Amino acid sequence: MRLINQRPGHSERLVLGAMLFVLLVAAYLIGSDIRLSENPDDKLLPSLAQMGAAIWQLAFQPEQRSGDYLLWTDTAASLARLLGGMTISALIALLIGIPTGLIPRARAAFAPFVTAICLIPPITILPILFIVFGLGETSKVMLIVIGTAPYMARTVAQAVADIPQEQIVKGLTLGANTWQMILRVVMPQIMPKLITAIRLGLGPAWIFLISAEAIASTGGLGYRIFLVRRYLSMDVILPYVAWITFIAFTLDWLLLLYSRKRYRWAHLSGTAL
Predict the structure, then answer these.
(1) Residue 264 gets which letter from DSSP?
(2) 243 lies in which domain range?
(3) Best exposed site among 139, 205, 217, 249 by fewest CB in 10 Å?
């Protein structure tokens, strides 16, 4: 049987999926052991024990000055900004994407503008956001919105445009107005695509969030990473990076799980990730 036709079983998929992670961890442990054996004070590749001790202190021991458990306060601050920005982006995507994909006049009005916004590197307007909105939470959330909403709106618009024209004609023939078409024909079919757009937008959203927190913030996961970098505290930076990755993976998995439960029909082909 040709390799392209071979399908791995459940156990084999688990092994293949975990293999690269195991190799990465093993390579790190070997490199850390070599460096620490040559120089016990080396900070580039701390041991698992050193990273565990650092994170234990940040997560379960209150900070002397504020009394906060820094890992959890940083996580709460970053998640509030991320979820706020992505929620606003999803609403904008619906408000702009549905008319753009369904109504020709709206398409003529919105499509060029959304395309132009997509071409602007969001990081370049961060100074403008700080000037306009200040250094508080609004500028950070707005960076996420500007960086993700246009792409999500284009995805929604394309999903609406992909709805078979026969369904639109049948709805209009039965007397449905534009609002009824949106609620009863369009919305049920594009929601899985919107969830996919949110999942794809989470990656860039994390980049924008960490960038904003690194430049101007007094708390958050990105703020903590860039705060301790001056001390070469890799025992804090690496666990924080792993923690961010875990949160991102969990959010993506929860969105996929919800989509599969709520919109099972959209995943029947087995190709949706």
Answers:
(1) G
(2) 52-267
(3) 249
